[in-house]
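The data layer described in this paper is built around a simple, fixed record for each protein. We quote a single record here, exactly as it is kept in our systems:
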Amino acid sequence: MTTRRARPAPRPPAGTPAPAELARQARAVLADAVRIARWAADGAGPGAVPLADRALERAAAVMELSPAQVRAGWDRARLAGLIELHGDTARPGWRLRAWNRDDSAVLRGWVALFDAWSLVHSSPEGIEATAVAEAVEAVPQVLSLLQLSAGPVSVPALLDLLAQRVAELHEERCEVPYGSQERPAPATETSADLNALLLDWALEGLAAVGALTLGSGHATLTPLGNWAVWVKLEQICVAAQSPAGNIEQSAADMLLGCARLTPGPARAEYRAWLAARPVGSAVAELLAVARGEDALLRGLAFEALRVVGAPAEPVVRSVVTEAPLRPYALLWLAEYEGADPDDAQDVLSREEATWLWVDTAAAVADHGESGLLVRHLDSAVQGTVPALLDEVRAVGHPRTVQVLVALAAAHPDPALAKAVRRAAFQVHTGGA
């Protein structure tokens, strides 16, 4: 036998700050959002989006911020997963709970905000949505140039790249005249002015989320922005936690430790952890984790409960009335009662299946690779992306906007990504 070594994870570019320093910078960018999220989560009752006027005035007075700053912080808190709305009630997201102790949660929250930069910074008035969408699709190339340059890049150079990418998008979509008409004329001064306006908007939006800084005629990625672009280019994910010592861990830490294991070894870890505890307290601890805000842990908690078997049945049956747990509990009960796992999905209503799809997508967005999120589309019961988007918007999952933004950022099809991004914008603004 030979010992095969795992390939080392790609190393960030030289000069990239340590994760702790990046997390410190991310906390600084989101400081107002965290303050507002904690204020709302403490029972201030902010109401549904948009932020209710009375709550807006109250928050501004308490935190000594302007109403505009409060509204901006509120939007950032929602997009970064710091706060979630359940009807008219604001609840702290799992990232807010982990904010002071978990640098990884902080960085993922900031990346979620980075992906949603076009929602944070309103697009210029009077410009067609198609032109705005093209600019958003072209921004990754602009960011790549900034990252590869490792320093300031002139705005004219960025504008040339943006214009070139927009022209490529037109060409890819065959937006040329039919028949024997002449070739389209070169870009006009009007289109050049439009590109310049959209570039300014994009750079200001990225600066607003802390991804870059703007100087006199140039832009430079911040350490956070440089790291985020590198991460996306390399398509890496958070390193897997070692499963060693899970028997001594809390339920949440044990589940995280098993997250990267294949089903067989994971079940062995669950059995070892369960064997070291009274069944009743172990089941209660797993359900407490399932009620948390981390969707990955919710799914893993029910996987561990499958190992428990019969002793968990009464408790699982009792949580069927809890909306976030209902799809998981129904599937658990169906399999416990003998249903084939492949057929167990039939016990879910279409709305429950859609809720579960969003919850699972949230887990992938928080802990997985972008390719997994794209492939997750195939598991939706709707069959078509437009039908899925319609039902996802209607189901009211608190992570809907973040899931759609992450999916739009990950999907390679520009047209589909644009439709998903539009749906995210509509959910974010409360539109139809």
